[in-house]
Amino acid sequence: MRKANLLIIDDEPAIGQGCAMICKDLGHNPSWCGTATDGRKRLQEGEYDLVLLDIRLPDYDGMELLNEIHQDFPELHVIMMTGFSTVQQTVKAMKKGAFDYLEKPFSTEELSQAVTKALKNVQLRHDNLHLRQQLFQRFEFNNIVGDSPAILPVFEAIKKVAPTDTTVLINGESGTGKELFAGALHARSGRAEKPFIAIDCSAFSTSLLESELFGHVKGAFTGADRDKQGIFEAANGSTLFLDEVANLDLNIQAKLLRVLEYGQYKPVGGRSIKKTDIRIIAASNQDLENKMLDGSFRPDLYYRLNVFPIDLPPLRQRKEDIPKLAYHFLKQFCKKNNKPLDGFSDGALETLINYPWPGNVRQLKNVVERLVIMVDEQLVDSSSLHGHLDARHHEAEDTMPATLAELKAYKQHLLDTQYNPVEKSLLQKALIASSGNISKAAKRVGMQRSNFSTLVKKHNISHS
Ligand SMILES: Nc1ncnc2c1ncn2[C@@H]1O[C@H](COP(=O)(O)OP(=O)(O)OP(=O)(O)O)[C@@H](O)[C@H]1O
Ligand SMILES: [Mg+2]
């Protein structure tokens, strides 16, 4: 996250300085003042991304100041800090447009979480607005979107390796863009004038693939009534993208190795050796090292292909790219379908960012295409996403436990990080909506009063 300017307005030096220190540790640029007068002055003079505002100030009512800030700087996020917090006050603050509130005394963790959440929202709004207004995107690489820290090294690697003749192996899950990046590599190479040939090794039977790649001579098999050129001859001088190399049969692997080592091969049924000059970019979404260990992939071919490996990270590891990709596809499909949508709501964009995208960029592209067809409003909002994202997918796959002890630890982790915050927020919301009345709040969520009350204590929620 980028360094943000924070203003802390609180008359207690321990709190003001403490918050400033924590925000600094988070990598931000905080400043602190103790009065509303001072706060107002600083807001007029500087540019702030977030304000932490005490509800009780010596010279002014914090709630009134919140009002003023809202009028003068409608985009500015404010987190209220409440000392003797009551639900009514909190309700009032939220109604007046505070982004969040913190009850004193709060822990470092609570402050860090609230600040990070607010700043993430500031960034999201800012990006969303910017992307909505942007008509065209500029690409350094033809039509490839992305500038996340995870994808930048891939661009760098492609720039470096493109002008050489080195064999490249692109690893990545399905839909991460292996073919797209391979095409970009070709386009930046000395072979760009020739067509880029892509072959999906899993789409052919072994004998058909062999004759596709190497050609055959007349009489090589039933039906071979004349000589046929293979890709290695027809596309001589160009780049060949071999998708799903893990599926190559051992016989073809041997022939491919020979092409890579000596630039030589024999057509099916032929005796004479032919020469070829083709650059190979191979791709796989399976673990080739495993295939090598179980004997279904030749180690010598693996090492020959793996001279320059490029790993394409899955989309869930480069969430920063999701807004740009989503807008890229939205604009593309709006144009294609002649449908002038304005963009995504902040909430919808946030949902897209948080989804784990098991089918990676291809899945995002397909979802956006469907949305453009389905949505009739100007904005794609959260409700339009229902039914387009499979709720079963969550991010547990990367942390799959292997023993009972790990499973229990995982359960506790989920409780702490996922369940408990939701439970607390449900209680708080119900209390706010029932003006702090426990009986009404319990009824509202369909819980026994005593159970509700126990949970309120467990989460240390103050009410009345
Ligand atoms: N960074 C990106 N910017 C724009 N479009 C992208 C990007 N990455 C992928 N795409 C698009 O997503 C779709 C899937 O990409 P691609 O076919 O290259 O993936 P793949 O890794 O080869 O998938 P598979 O393993 O299933 O063959 C394509 O339509 C491609 O244009
Ligand atoms: Mg592919």
3D structure, described in words:
By secondary structure, this protein is an alpha/beta fold. The protein folds into 4 domains: 5-133, Rossmann fold; 152-311, Rossmann fold (3-Layer(aba) Sandwich), CATH 3.40.50; 318-395, Helicase, Ruva Protein, domain 3 (Orthogonal Bundle), CATH 1.10.8.60; 401-458, Orthogonal Bundle (Arc Repressor Mutant, subunit A). Helices cover 47% and strands 12% of the residues. It has helices spanning 13-25, 36-45, 62-72, 87-95, 108-133, 152-161, 178-187, 206-214, 231-234, 250-262, 288-293, 299-305, 322-337, 346-354, 360-374, 404-433, 438-445, 449-458; strands at 5-9, 29-33, 50-54, 77-82, 100-103, 168-171, 196-200, 239-243, 264-265, 274-275, 279-284, 308-311, 343-344, 379-380. The strands form 4 sheets. Strands 2-1-3-4-5 form a 5-stranded parallel beta sheet, sandwiched between helices. A 5-stranded parallel beta sheet has the order 7-8-11-6-12, covered by helices on one side. Strands 9-10 form a two-stranded antiparallel sheet. A hairpin with an 8-residue loop joins strand 9 (264-265) and strand 10 (274-275). The two termini are 38 Å apart. The structure holds adenosine-5'-triphosphate and magnesium ion. The site of magnesium ion has 3 residues, from helix 7.
Tell me the number of strands.
Answer: 14
What structural class is derived from the secondary structure elements? alpha/beta
Residue-averaged pLDDT: 91
CATH architecture type of the largest domain: 3-Layer(aba) Sandwich
- Please mark out the parts with pLDDT under 50 across 5 or more consecutive residues, or reply none: 394-398
Strand % is 5-15%
Helix content estimate: 40-55%
Describe the sheet with the most strands. Answer: 5 strands, parallel
Distance between the termini: 38 Å
Shape: elongated
What's the CATH H-level homologous superfamily of the largest domain?
A: P-loop containing nucleotide triphosphate hydrolases
The CATH class label of the largest domain is Alpha Beta
